[in-house]
Amino acid sequence: QAVVDFERLGEHAAAFQGHDVGFCCLGTTRAKAGADGFVRVDRDYVAQAAELARAGGCKHFILQSSRGANAKSRFLYLRVKGEVENLVQAVGFDDCTILRPAVLLCRRQESRPMEWIAQQFLGAVAWLFPTAYSVPVEMVARAMVACALQPGEGKVKVLENRAIHELGKA
Asked: 23 lies in which domain range?
């Protein structure tokens, strides 16, 4: 594990050398980082990490994005997620997998009261519609690993929430 300074990511190029697969789950919130900070973390840092990974020999990049990602969205969050998907695809990996989970169900160290309420509600809804509105983070992680273990097809693959559930159970 290498700890890097994302503000000077180019100085850490050696940490991105010699890896076959890259996993990226980097992100923050607008509330925590402000609009500019959110864009810097969720788009700029991710795009730069993808470029460094490719330059370091990475063949398959696996990106956690978001349901509804769309570079033309009028909502900042979804627009930035769509923009970073496009930037990562443009890097030219042999294989690129983009996961678009719905609401992530997880325990957080920080307090996010509205997210906690939403997670409680969606956790209950998940009993009736397990793949519709949410996904446990552990399932996303298992799906990412499953993607890495599958033979490459030489293309971009986008997995929506239901497919993440299916792969995460395998």
From this structure: 14-169
